[in-house]
Amino acid sequence: MTPILTALLCLGSLPKPALWAEPSSVIIRGSPVTIWCQGSLEAQEYRLDKEGSTEPWDRQNLLESRKKARFSIPSMTEHHAGRYRCYYLSPEGWSEPSDPLELVMTGFYRKPTLSALPSPVVASGGNVTLRCGSPKGYQHFVLIEEGEHRLPRTRDSQQLHSGWYQALFPVGPVTPSHRWTFRCYYYYENAPQVWSHPSDPLEILASGVSRNPSLLTLQGPVVAPGENLILQCGSNVGYDRFALYKEKGHDFLQRPGRQLQAGLSQANFTLDPVSRSHGGQYRCYGAHNLSSEWSAPSDPLDILIAGQFYDVVSLSVQPGPTVASGENVTLLCQSGKQFHTFLLTKEGAAHPPLRLRSEHQAQQYQAEFPMGPVTSAHAGTYRCYGSLSTNPYLLSHPSDPLELVVSGEGPDPVPSELKGSAQAQAPGDLTQVQGTRAAGLGRYLEALIGVLVAFVLLLFLLLFLVLRRQRQSKHKISDQRKTDFQPPAGAAEPQPKDRGLLRRRRTPCSGPADAAVKDTQPEDGVELDSRQSPHDEDPRAVTRALVKHSRLRRGVTSPPSPLSEEFLDTKDTQAEEDRQMDTEAAASEAPQDVTYAQLQSLTLRREATEPPPSQEGEPPAEPSVYATLAIH
């Protein structure tokens, strides 16, 4: 029996060894790798074979431990890539070959792209499709999930109509029990162990039913290239981290949440400088640190990039830029070049731009945006853009701004929605969002205006009641004073002693400040002839009347004084000055017996007293006539 036949008969009688590579069987080009072959304690020699080679690739003598051998590769190249097996030799002969080891070198071609359809955030328990693609016509794509004992999955490439090559890998069901992170590669069929650079890692997030956050932009939905764009994702649930995803994007951004106050948190995602690649539809998610499950997605936010087409777009208004409140107007967006859609934006508006399909008329592509009846809420600055259906997020340069002025009544709390005869066409159904926000704002303004009107009416009513009460109080005081000065019926009038109202003195018969009283009817009364000084215009002036020795005429009274009731009581100091003036006049001229009354906002009334008994040596006194004063 020949030695070869003896070896073949002995081959396979011993257990096969184990073969593996460290740190991995997929090695980046230029990196070191170690291959281990482990057999039995009876092993005397280990041999490593590479598939396709006629000679053993390497032989290793035994180490201190006879159980395994090490084969080192200091720098990985495409020549080292291949399929390997190992054997060991024992006194009984050669063992069975180990299971094959695929040693792969990566980094030989450009990296492919990896994305999730429809989104990398999947409802817990749901499925997702991963798409690995490349513009080159590579024949096979490989998907690898990071983690221990994750075997590669291989798919043949498929060519699309656009010339793009791709392979689809279904994944699921997705659960939040662990992280799902993937990379993909491609290779040619004639070199299956030489792969491309790995794609960027793609993490699949398992979302739940927790409350979705809100997503908004601080600059507005239309931005120009080169500007800075900040997207703000916030929630009142108190999420610890947030993720931002762009539709059909390859990956999402994650940011830690900033706690503003109890239960409120947010994260800002800065995209700068803005380029055409930033145009698209965005959503954001929130999650807590102690959970691998993400929230439900936010409402979509469209980011539009202007200045991508140089065709001129114009904006006009009919009947004119200045209209009265309640009229109807139409904004007309036009271009000589073809645009599939026109967008109308209002400066400072919270709602997204409105989109209408263009119509071809009179060698112009145009869209009409009717408005009406207009209110002051429609006033503002408008601009128009054009876009193509191939990428609705890329816009033309804006039209010249158009200022719409609404005259007439104040602002209508519920502005009319812009309507178009053409069917609205927009990513994310922008017109529905605009209608909902406008209705909510209208209800808020209606309530606010109602409260303000009620407050003003209440204020006027309160002011009216205060003024009326003050007027009634003055009338009550006046009536009370009249009652106090009116003597009781049948009672004699008291002698006027106070305030010097009635005096009998020796004074000059005439004076510029006195009013002379002529005795025209000695029996029935007197006639009062009032003469006032030029100082009578002073409300504090005093009117005097000289009364001769006769009776006052019945029913003759002085007219009511127009002076205010606040001057009814004359100050004592004024009365004292009058006494001094009377004394000085009596000293300078011949005295005469006269009776006078000092009149101050009062009405004369007839009174007479009997003269006192005459003493011896004195002429008999004539009866005294005086006038009592009653409040008018």
Question: Describe it for me?
Answer:
Helices cover about 15% and strands about 40% of the residues. The strands form ten sheets. Strands 20, 22, 23, 26, 28, 30, 32, 33, 36, 37 and 38 form an eleven-stranded mixed β-sheet that branches. The protein starts with a helix and ends with a strand. A hairpin with a 2-residue loop joins strand 24 and strand 25. The chain is elongated and about 145 Å long. Among the domains are: about 15-105, Immunoglobulin-like; about 110-205, Sandwich (Immunoglobulin-like), CATH 2.60.40; about 210-305, Immunoglobulin-like (Sandwich), CATH 2.60.40.10; about 310-405, Immunoglobulin-like (Sandwich), CATH 2.60.40.10. The model is unreliable at about 1-10, about 410-440, about 490-575, about 580-620 and about 625-630 (pLDDT under 50). The longest helix is centred in the C-terminal third of the chain and has 56 residues, at about 430-485. It has about 625 residues and is mainly β. The chain contains three helices and 46 strands.
CATH-derived architecture of the domain at 310-407: Sandwich
End-to-end Cα distance: 162 Å
Write down the CATH class of the domain at 310-407.
Mainly Beta
How many helices?
A: 3
| Portion in beta strands | 35-45%
Count every beta strand, where a strand is a DSSP E run of 2 or more residues. 46
GO cellular component, one term: plasma membrane
Biased composition (Basic and acidic residues): 528-541, 568-582
InterPro entries: Ig-like_dom, Ig-like_dom_sf, Ig-like_fold, Ig-like_Receptors_ImmuneReg, Ig_sub, Ig_sub2, Immunoglobulin_dom
Pfam families: ig (PF00047), Ig_2 (PF13895)
